[in-house]
Every structure is written in C-alpha cells, then in structure tokens.
Design goal:
heterodimer, A: 418 residues, 2 domains, six-stranded mixed β-barrel, 54% helix, B: 301 residues, alpha/beta, Rossmann fold, four-stranded antiparallel beta sheet, 8 helices, 21% strand, globular
C-alpha cells in the first residue's frame, strides 16, 4: 500500500470521528503545550542568569578567597580572609599577569546609608577606577573617583542608579553627602559612621538578574573602604579583565602562579584561593538551571504520557469498531504490514496533529507567562522540534499495540464480526 | 481490462428470477444421464482433495474426555474448471461457508490439498495467502462490505492499492463501467441503493482480473428483482469467460447457475449440472453417517 494512500485513509478515519479525534488530539496538545511552556520557563531562567553573568564584566576572571568551589557553592570560604591588597599589588607588578587588561580589588560589605530622612541597606564596594572597565560600568552623572582619591583615602562615593533614586528621590545626587553606618556585627561592636560625598551616579544596567539588584550599590575608593569603613585589608574579590576572550584561561594560569608564590603554596590543590573565569561561573549556573529545566520537562512529560495512553485507548476502540473493515481489507489482499502500517500511521497522524497544535499553544502560553509575570519564558526552536518529534514518537509507541492487534486478526473471524 | 464485451451491461426489461440465456460453457446432461464431472477444460482451476476442517469446542484440548470437535468439512473432493458457473448449495451448518472460506483462501484446511490456478495454497503463510487472495480471488459478500465515506471508484481500486498499481483509478473506472455504474463512480456507498452497492462490490472483485469470482449469498440482502439483476450480471460475466462460484442456500439462485454442488453435514451429497437436477434425473445421496476422520482424534482412551 503506498504511503500516500495510507495517509489518505488515516486522515479519512480521523475526519470520520471528528469529536473523538479532537478530544484525543487535545490530550496530546495539553501534554506538548505543558512541555513547551515548562521548558520555556526553564530556558528563560537560564537565559536571564546567563545574561546577568555576562553583564558582570568583560572577559572577567575572578579570584576569591578560600579553596575550591563546587558548582556555585563555596564551602565556608565566604568568610575566608586569604586575599589581601598585597596580592593585588603582586598581580599588578609589571609582567606578573601579561594577559590582563585591568586588575581591581573589591572589598565588599553591607552598610546602612543615610541621607536626611531616607536610608537604605546596600552593598558597599571598595575598589579602584579600573572597576569601570572590568565590571562594565559607565558613569551617567558626574565622574568616577580617581587614583588620587584612592591614594588619599578620599571621602567620595559613586552610587548606583537605584540607590540614587532611593536616597534622593529624583533630586541631583552629585555633590550631596551621604552617611555610611557600618557595624562588623559582633556583640558590642561599635557602629562606624563615615561621611562621603557623591561624585558620580552609574548608568543603570537593569535588573534582569532577579536575584540581586546590580544598580543598588555604593562604590568607594578601596583605601577608604579598608581603613575607614570596614577596618580590614582582606579583599572579597580580585576582578581581572583579560585582554581578550581567548586569553582568559592564560590569565587564570598566570594569576594562579603569582598567588601560589605570594601565598607560599606549592601544591595547587591546597591553594587558599580560587580563580574562576566567567565561563566557569556560566557553566556552573547553566548546569544548575538545566537541572531545573529537566525537572520542568519531566513534569510536562507526565501529561504527554497521559495523552499517549489516551491515544492507545482510542486506537483500541477504533480497531474493535473496524474489525469488519480489517477483515475486508485482508480478504482483498492486505498483508499484516499493510494493516499494521494503517493503524500506526493513524495514531501518528493524531499525535502529530496534537504536537503541532500543542506547540502553538505552548508558544502562546510562554508569551503569556512573559507578559503577565516577571518570569522570562523563552521558546527555543529545539524545544518545538523536540515536542513535535516526541509526539510523533508517542503515536508510534502507543499506537503499536493496537496496530499489532489489528494486524493479527484472522480475516474470517474479522469478517464474521458484526 | 477485466470485463469486456457488449454483453456485460445491465440487462433491463424482464424482472423476477429468470434463467440466464445459453452461454458458451453451458454443460447439459444428455439423455437424462447425470454428468457428475462436467466437461470442464483441464487442468481444473480449483482442485480440492480430501479437505477436512474441524472446529474444536468445549475446552478445545485434543484428547481430553468431553471435548468435542465439530467437523465442518469431512473429506471433500472437488474440481472446478475454468469458465464454470457453479453454485455451492446447502442449509446452514452444512459446511458451505467453510468450503467457501477455504476456496477463497481466507482459511486453510486441517487436512487435504488445495491447488488454486496451479498454486498449492495448503501450506501457505498469512502474507502469502493475502497475496493469493489479492491476485487470484475476487470476493463478493452478502453485505457487500464497502468502505463507508469512500467513493465507489476508490472502493473498487482498493485491491489494486494493495499491489501498488499506479493505474488503479483508470482500471477501477473501467470495472465500474462494466457493471453499469460508470456514471456513479464518485458516489459514496450511502448514496447508492443496495443493488448498486452490490454492483460496486462486484466491480471491486473484477478489477484485479481474478482467476475465480467467489460470491457469498450475493443476493441475500436484496429484494428479488434486484437480486435477479445481480444474478444476471453474474451470468453475463460467466458468458464472457469468467469462473463464477456462488455460495447460497437459495435453490432459486442455484438454479440460475450451470452446476450445483450440494453439501450436507460437511460432505458433498450432490454434484451435477443444474439441468439434470431440475429435470429430476439426479437426486442427492444421503451423507455417509459413519464417516470418521482418518486421523487420530479424541477417543477417550
């Protein structure tokens, strides 16, 4: 039997039982739409995390205190104090890290910022002017502080766009003064107050991340942060911008060599610091979000499975109803494979129609999710192809048993059936 | 094309049961002497030797006391020549449907040999039997068995589709023309009368140019006038050289054929030309009541 004839028969049989076919297709449609919708949420989360990590800087290599990290989780190293400004000086020494374009320390903490009646708790980072290059920041209003400010422990600050809005509610921040209250958190620890003048406001990067608001920050000279605010000289991060994407791994090696020397560690596995490239962070985040995506896809697949069982059910009914037709076809010369093919193609036609319709509904659902919620939902072409392919496969798998039953019918038995 | 010649159109005018006109291969009994074996051209198209078919009932296990095997056919020998017009006659339970199924290769006998058009089909598997049915047998059923929602021409083309014949539509249209339904090729079964549907079924049986045309109670679901028209069509097909086998319990239908094979209790009790039967020259024998299969069977020992 030519395939085109088999297809025509399958569409004819589908059209003959429109309501039944529609309900069966609906089962597959819901399953496919669920898979696509769920996966789009997962993919959207991945994409937004990836873009956030990309936005952290250009060709970024990050050095953190403490030992190796697993995934994104760093053991107790968060409190490690093994990186110092001396390490930064060693890295900056001529020829130490030839593939670095810029190196800056980041001495971070949180502090209460007060202006008149407004106050906010925000992230405070002590750094150098290289911060702009390495972390991809531009100053929209005013200017970044200078190397001279760093040498003189100047009382200046550059604030994020959100911080500016919070504290000055639309007024001009540049030239104004802010008070930073910091307490190390220990019992009876004194609250240090530092008065700083705002010299610049960063251009907004947007708040795509969802975890934290990059635009809510106060940046001060690293010396000011170390000596006047936090009272410590160990840095939280050393951020390095490589000269190009291809030299990032060189930078990683060079930095490791230098720091192993300054820390007097001979065995790299015993290093008390961690050097990661942006790619490392990205792949760690990706592996986390892809687990999430797989979970969502699995949930969606359950409804696809239920749809598949619906297909099997309806095909069994169809075989029973059309026993006489099967007998006739066999009497006229249809072989086992002809009958098998006829019912398989019919099942695949049903599920593929469901798959295509489900893909369209899935796209609508993810668009709706993106419109109505803050969750990003991205439909990838791969998930569409996969959904339609999987629904066709569902037809094959769940159509096989009914089709085999049809093919195995004896013609006289089938013809005798009323 | 399968059906040709001017004689195959629908004859109109007379109604009711009418004997077919004299045809080329009419076998007449001369001088009242029955001819048990008609003067068929050799070799015989259908050669059946010692066919036994048994259906088990009860628990069905062989040899178990209490299981009963029902013999539908108890050793049937039969030859049908090319171009014959034969009726297989018998009451229900006589085994005529079983015999028809075996002749049509829908079923295989438990014992015995069956050669159809030179092909020994006794030992063939399912797919090979399907092929034989497609090539050698044209079926006409009592309930015509057309596919609903499918145009007449596509119904007729169906057997050709299973052999991948690209020219099937043209052949199907020609076959419909031959049974007088050329104008209604695109009609669906529910737009056709019972007689027209049966003509479509006959066209479907003819379209493959089969060795035998096998009709199971072809007039059983039709009124007598329409049924007579269908039988006239079979007569015309026979006149054009086709081998036609009609299975019926109706003696009126059987009398329109040229040779009758009467079955009773799974055995042939009469095999004679219709003329001889109508003239009373031959009568049916009684079935051999003591018949026992020659194979080991449930004896309860």
């Amino acid at each position: 039997m030519p395939l085109i004839e088999t297809l025509r028969t399958a569409f004819g049989a589908t059209a003959a039982n429109k309501l039944r076919a529609a309900l069966t297709i609906l089962g597959i449609l819901v399953g496919v739409a669920a898979v696509i919708g769920m996966v789009s949420v997962g993919e959207g989360a991945s994409a937004s995390i990836a873009s956030t990590l990309q936005g952290l800087g250009t060709n970024l290599v990050l050095v953190s205190p403490g030992g190796q990290t697993t995934g994104l989780v760093r053991g107790a190293g968060g409190g490690a104090t093994t990186l110092t400004l001396d390490d930064v000086a060693a890295l900056r020494a001529a020829g130490a890290v030839p593939d670095a374009a810029a190196i800056e320390p980041e001495l971070s903490g949180r502090a209460q910022v007060i202006v008149g009646g407004s106050n906010t708790n925000t992230s405070v980072t002590g750094t150098t002017p290289a911060y702009q290059t390495v972390r991809n920041w531009t100053v929209a209003d005013g200017a970044f502080f200078t190397d001279a400010d760093v040498s003189s422990n100047a009382s200046v600050a550059v604030i994020g766009a959100t911080t500016a809005t919070t504290l000055f509610s639309g007024g001009e921040p540049v030239g104004q003064y802010i008070n930073l209250n910091f307490s190390s958190g220990g019992r009876n620890s004194p609250v240090r107050t530092v008065r700083l003048q705002v010299v610049g406001v960063f251009a907004s990067k947007g708040t795509a991340a969802g975890f934290f608001n990059q635009d809510d920050q106060v940046v001060v000279p690293v010396t000011t942060a170390a000596q006047r605010i936090f009272g410590r000289s160990n840095v939280s991060t050393i951020a390095i911008s490589a000269t190009s994407q291809s030299t990032m791994s060189n930078v990683q090696l060079e930095v490791t060599q230098v720091l192993l020397g300054t820390h007097h560690v001979s065995d790299p596995t015993q290093a008390d610091f961690t050097v990661q490239t942006q790619q490392d962070l990205l792949s760690a985040a990706t592996s986390a979000t892809s687990t999430f995506t797989i979970l969502l896809a699995a949930i969606g697949s359950i409804s696809l499975l239920v749809g598949g069982i619906g297909i099997m059910n309806i095909m069994l009914v169809s075989v029973t109803e059309r026993t006489r037709e099967i007998g006739l076809r066999k009497a006229l010369g249809a072989r086992r494979t002809d009958i098998l093919g006829q019912f398989l193609v019919e099942a695949v036609v049903l599920t593929t129609l469901g798959g295509v319709a489900g893909a369209l509904v899935g796209i609508l659902v993810s668009v709706a999710i993106a419109r109505l919620t803050t969750v990003q939902a991205t439909v990838t072409p791969a998930s569409l192809v996969l959904a339609v392919g999987v629904s066709a496969a569902v037809g094959l798998v769940f159509g096989l048993y009914p089709a085999r039953r049809a093919a195995g019918l004896q013609p006289i038995v089938a013809l005798r059936t009323e | 094309m399968a059906v040709e010649g001017p004689g195959t159109g629908i004859a109109s005018g007379d109604s009711g049961w009418a004997r077919p006109g004299p045809a080329a291969l009419t076998v007449r009994a001369v001088g009242g002497v029955p001819t048990a074996e008609p003067a068929a051209p050799s070799p015989a198209l259908v050669r059946i030797q010692g066919i036994v078919k048994r259906y088990s009932s009860g628990d069905g296990s062989l040899g178990a006391a209490g299981s009963t095997a029902v013999y539908a056919l108890r050793g049937v020998d039969l030859q049908i020549g090319r171009g014959e017009f034969v009726a297989i006659v018998g009451p229900s339970g006589s085994g005529k449907s079983t015999l028809m199924n075996i002749i049509g290769c829908l079923d295989v006998a438990d014992r015995g040999r069956y050669v159809l058009a030179g092909v020994d089909v006794s030992q063939l598997g399912d797919d090979a039997l399907a092929r034989v049915r497609n090539r050698l047998v044209g079926f006409v059923f009592q309930q015509w068995n057309l596919l609903a929602r499918t145009a007449a021409v596509d119904n007729v083309a169906l057997p050709l589709a299973y052999r991948g014949d690209a020219d099937r539509r043209r052949k199907a249209l020609a076959a419909l023309g031959a049974v007088g339904l050329g104008e209604r090729a695109t009609h669906r079964p529910n737009q056709l009368s019972g007689g027209e549907q049966q003509r479509v079924a006959i066209a479907r049986a003819l379209v493959t140019s089969p060795a035998i045309l096998l009709a199971d109670e072809p007039t059983g679901s039709l009124d007598s006038v329409t049924g007579a028209g269908i039988m006239r069509l079979f007569s015309q097909l026979h006149a054009s050289g086709r081998t036609v086998i009609v299975v019926t319990h109706d003696s009126h239908v059987a009398d329109l054929t040229q040779r009758q094979i009467h079955l009773l209790d799974g055995q042939i009790v009469l095999d004679a030309p219709t003329d001889a039967i109508r003239s009373g020259a031959v009568v049916a024998s009684t079935p051999a009541g003591a018949w026992q299969p020659a194979m080991p069977h449930a004896s309860g020992v």
